Amino acid sequence: LVRVDPAPVIRHLSEAGVSETGDLKPLSVREGAVTTMAPLARFFAWHSPPAFDANGRLLAAWSADGWGLVLECASGRLVAELPWKGPGSGKPVRRNVRLDLSPDGNQVAMVARGTLICQRLDQESGTWKSKTSVGHVTDVVFHPDGHTLFVTNSKGEVHRLDAATGRIVMSLDLKIGLLLCVAINSLGSVAAVGNRGGHVALLDIDF
Question: For residue 76, what pLDDT is reported?
Answer without folding.
Answer: 86
